[in-house]
Amino acid sequence: MSTAKHIPNITPAAMADPRDVGGPRQPLLRAQNLLKHFPLKRKGLDFRGPKPVVRAVDGVSFDIKKGETLGVVGESGCGKSTTARLLMQLTLQDKGELIFDGQTVGSSSLPLREFRRQTQMVFQDSYSSLNPRMTIEDSVAFGPTVHGVTQRAALARAHDLLARVGLDPARFAGRYPHELSGGQRQRVNIARALALEPRLVILDEAVSALDKSVEAQVLNLLEDLKRDFGLTYLFISHDLHVVRYVSDRVLVMYLGQVVEVGPADQVFDAPRHPYTRALLQSMPSTDPLQRTTEAPLSGDPPNPIDPPPGCRFHTRCAFAQPVCGQQVPQFVEPAPGHGVACLRWQPESGYEPMPDFPRPSPAPAKSLMPLNAAVASEMPDIFPEARRG
Amino acid sequence: MSAVLPPSAMPTPAPVAVVRSRSHGANVMRRLLRNPIAMTAAAVILLLVLVAIFAPWIMPADPFATSMFKRLKPIGTPGFPLGTDELGRDMLSRLMLGGRLSLFMGIAPVLMAFVIGSGIGILAGYAGGGINTVLMRCVDVLYAFPSVLLAIALSGALGAGITNALVSLTVVFVPQIARIAESVTTQVRRSDYVDAARASGASAFTIVHRHVLGNVIGPIFVYATSLISVSMILASGLSFLGLGVKPPQPEWGLMLNTLRTAIYSQPWIAALPGVLIFVTSVSFNMLADGLRTAMEVKQ
């Protein structure tokens, strides 16, 4: 898996898809300058100035390539979920547009209904995303019937998909959501998303609510389904380990904006944006020698109603210089395919060059090493592929 | 509307035989049947309804036959087990026949308001935004009046009569049911399964029909059931004021009105229609309560 990560991952299934319009190099979904501000009520009788808004998503642009898994990470409230809802068009953007395989979403060539057949979403809360009054099979079969498939054929497809996600249809199809465990329900949600044979699946924290062993099973299932059905994933999570494991490319968001996009290995091993770096430092390590002793970031993110001027991260950034509070960084690509929105990477910006990120120095506690290795060898091999890579 | 999906890559055999779980409705019914209070209430209501329906055939005497010599006979008089009213008519027969109109005036306005109010509330709750604001503010205007006052004012304006009483009571209950329907629908509207249904490309009508209705109708129905007793009392009140049923037609509220002159001579007979109104409304309340408990347990 990791060997193929640097090249845009084009699976044969994606190329063979008869619905393919733009060819393998055309991004499957292109988000252009998406903007969503949620209006707030004015306080009291203060009618001066513009109406306050929460800048949930503030000019986000990115591509999802055919056949890849694009991971999206960021703190709570950075706009990950709003972005997902904008992509699914459950919330409509104030500005910007979506281009699906070369066609503008909502245009006459790709009406919204048609787009939704090719893009599906799996929600975080496995329980509330299933209708409590509907049996599992009816929930899965609902989508196809909406698009004109007969009830009988839709049920047959639902049973097929339930079997495919590891739920025996004879036992599970007639049950109600409350009779299933969280992991089983999330499998049902995945089956429902696949019932319309989508090309893009948005996984909004789809495994975050599951316990670790079930999470691993569902991740492996997602990997298999992606291969078998030629899917493309947008994988939103706050769990950086999981994102690294599943993603080909990673997109980092901060306060409603994209701060860094790049191949997963590059972003995780050589982060360019100070925020990405801080985020990665907050990852708990399984190695006691790699203990995080200092908080990588302090404080809460600034209020998205009134974001700081210039670079939005400069208030918490260890590398901030005066220029950061004045100039809005442009999104630049110092290396092809790895973009960053930070003044340090803009030679003309007036940012005084300073030494690169100091590397964390491992504590010299060598005595712990054998113990650590022993513990590691007894661990069940949940992620064999990740271990190899 | 749209073409059939492209042929699936998977083989599609016929649906397999599936072990079905008990549906939500069956579970609610099972829990309701185990609730002794709700079952007693249901039995009382069933008895009252049956007696009212079959009243013309099982009445011991003619409820309209007056007699100046048999006025206000006490309970237990031979031939008149529950005595006679101020015009000498058989109380038992009149109470049996009166149940028809009283129960009708309790159930019919609530049923009509249930249909109209649910429609308004679900539309407002699902549409949200401006439509919600307009609809719910209109409903609030009606809601601002005390229900008794509104019923009397409307009946008074429309004139006496059963139909007008029915209409005015319906208008009284529509805002109450619409508000409940709106709040329940708004809650369901925000749930992920409605989002998932929207994401599948279903139209608003399909989503309301398949996903919203089943989840909101239960709570609205429970609330409506509890209004039946209120409706009966209000209808009785209208009849008492001479705005509902007209004499000599028997109806419990009207009987209470005409018998009030006998409150000192035959207090027990004067109280009889009131006792029936009380028993019926308490029974409906108990049943609604049981229904609510039966639905509340796990979804």
SSE order and pairing:
The complex is a heterodimer of chains A (389) and B (299).
Chain A: H1 12-16, E1 29-39, E2 53-64, E3 69-73, H2 80-87, E4 95-100, E5 103-104, H3 112-118, E6 119-122, H4 136-146, H5 151-164, H6 169-172, H7 182-194, E7 200-204, H8 212-229, E8 232-236, H9 240-246, E9 249-254, E10 257-263, H10 264-269, H11 274-281, E11 332-335, E12 338-340, H12 369-378, H13 384-388
Parallel strand pairs in A: 3-8, 3-9, 6-7, 7-8
Antiparallel strand pairs in A: 1-2, 1-4, 4-5, 9-10, 10-12, 11-12
Chain B: H1 24-33, H2 36-58, H3 91-127, H4 129-143, H5 147-158, H6 162-189, H7 192-199, H8 204-240, H9 252-258, H10 267-296
Give the gist of this structure.
The complex is a heterodimer of chains A (389) and B (299). With 389 residues, chain A is an alpha/beta fold.
Tell me what the structure shows.
- Chain A has 389 residues and is α/β, with parallel strands linked by helices.
- Chain A has a domain at 2-40 and 52-133 and 176-267: P-loop containing nucleotide triphosphate hydrolases (Rossmann fold, 3-Layer(aba) Sandwich).
- Helices cover 30% and strands 18% of the residues of chain A.
- Chain A contains 13 helices and twelve strands.
- Chain A has helices spanning 12-16, 80-87, 112-118, 136-146, 151-164, 169-172, 182-194, 212-229, 240-246, 264-269, 274-281, 369-378, 384-388, and strands at 29-39, 53-64, 69-73, 95-100, 103-104, 119-122, 200-204, 232-236, 249-254, 257-263, 332-335, 338-340.
- Chain A is globular and about 65 Å long.
- Chain B is mainly α and 299 residues long.
- Chain B has one domain: MetI-like (MetI-like fold, Orthogonal Bundle).
- In chain B, 69% of the residues lie in helices and 0% in strands.
- Chain B has ten helices and no strands.
- Chain B has helices at residues 24-33, 36-58, 91-127, 129-143, 147-158, 162-189, 192-199, 204-240, 252-258, 267-296.
- In chain B, α3 (91-127) packs parallel to α6, α3 runs antiparallel to α8 (204-240) and α9 runs antiparallel to α10 (267-296).
- Chain B starts with 23 loop residues before the first helix and ends with a helix.
- The interface between A and B is large, with 55 and 41 residues.
